[in-house]
Amino acid sequence: MKSYKNKINRIRTFALALIFIGIVIMYVGIYFRNQPIVMVIFMLLGVIAIIGSTGVYAWIGLLSMKTVPVQCPNCERHTKMLGRVDICMHCNEPLTMDPSLEGKAFNEEYNKKKTQH
Questions:
Q1: Rounded CA separation 111/82 (Å)
Q2: pLDDT tens, 61-77?
Q3: The pTM is what?
Q4: Among 33, 47, 97, 106, which has the minimal tally of Cβ within 10 Å of its Cβ?
């Protein structure tokens, strides 16, 4: 079964990965010191990845300010929740704010908007 993680933490992990990917790309550019054009291309790609990470961090920071803080019934700690269903950041307890989903098995599909025909 797939391991679920809190949405905010997943986005933060992606942003952190972008930083490391950018640094690795720039290090690869060092191996092309004899070819300045190729080295500059790798350096620019690395900087773009790091700037992209900064954008993702800014976006998730703004999004995090709009989230609803809830108290987890399992660990009694406060966590931020995105969407109708989410996972506690601390104990991975499924959380929902929709009374119609109480007692149902956790499924991230509940967060997707259904198209109406």
A1: 9
A2: 898 888 878 888 888 88
A3: 0.72
A4: 33
Q: What single DSSP character describes residue 116?
A: P
| Structure token pair of residue 79 | 């966590």
Closest by CA position to 68, among listed 98, 100, 41: 98
**Which tokens sit at 93?**
């307890």
Average pLDDT taken over every residue of the chain:
82
Enter the tokens of residue 59: 């976006």
The residue that leads in pLDDT, 16 or 85, is: 16
Residue pair 84/96 in contact by the 8 Å Cβ criterion: yes
